[in-house]
Amino acid sequence: MVKTGKKNVMTYRGRPVMRLEPIHDKVVGKDDSFLQLDGIVDDKNENLSNQAMDEIIYS
């Protein structure tokens, strides 16, 4: 059913506990910061920390 685009609600003892629904593809632009991480390196050629990546992506 999900392949046809329909949502399904799963219940436990008559109460909804989960929803199963299709994921619609999102088009990501070439300027997306996350996709540019592979081109970012520091001077010491060390791996970037998660914090450093977050600062690059979200600042």
Please, could you describe this protein's structure?
By secondary structure, this protein is of the alpha+beta class. It has a domain at 24-59. The chain has 1 helix and 2 strands, in the order E-E-H. It has a two-stranded antiparallel sheet with strand order 1-2. A hairpin with a 2-residue loop joins strand 1 (8-12) and strand 2. It starts with 7 loop residues before the first strand and ends with a helix. The model has no long low-confidence stretch (mean pLDDT 77).
Number of strands: 2
- Given the C-alpha coordinates, what overall shape results? elongated
* Uncertain regions spanning at least 5 consecutive residues: none
Series of H and E elements: EEH
Strand content: 15-25%
Roughly how many Å apart are the termini?
41 Å
State the secondary-structure class. Answer: alpha+beta
Radius of gyration: 20 Å
**Individual helix count:** 1
Main beta sheet, described?
2 strands, antiparallel
Mean pLDDT: 77
Q: What strand order characterises the main sheet?
A: 1-2
In percent, how helical is the residue content?
10-25%
Query: What quaternary form is this?
Result: single chain
